[in-house]
Predict the 3D structure of the following.
Amino acid sequence: MISSKVQDILNIQINKEFYSAYLYLAMSAYFEEIGLNGFANWTKVQAKEEVDHGIILFDYIIARDGVVKLEQINSPDRDFKGVLQVFEKILEHEKFVTDSINCVASMSEDECDLATRHFINWYISEQVEEEANTRDVITKLKMFGDDKASLYHLDQDLAKRTYVPHSYKI
């Protein structure tokens, strides 16, 4: 059985993961609107991964005989001002999620819930990867500056990203 404190923080994390999917879908729509289909693909794949992350948490709570409590998902901000600014928002958001995951790890330790502490390591590793991938795109965007040809090539590169379902064997 999972403690009520750990269950509550995991339910909050589910909401954050599904909000992240909404945020990435809003960004994908923005990129489609400005004709950057590769960037749209990258953020759409990211949205699908965030849904996977929420479902994995959902399944984990149930596997631990807990209660899933789904809350309302807020609408994401759609006030985007360029590709670099969007990716800076992505990095800021991923850092927020990393902090949240670290709080889950800390709470599970405080509650002596070693199963959840072990489980959440997958998310910690995932966040390191997500932040690194975002920083890589930001670095390229800053290096390219206003060079449209380089932006075009990066867009073509990001179009190659494919969705691979995330899973966690409980």
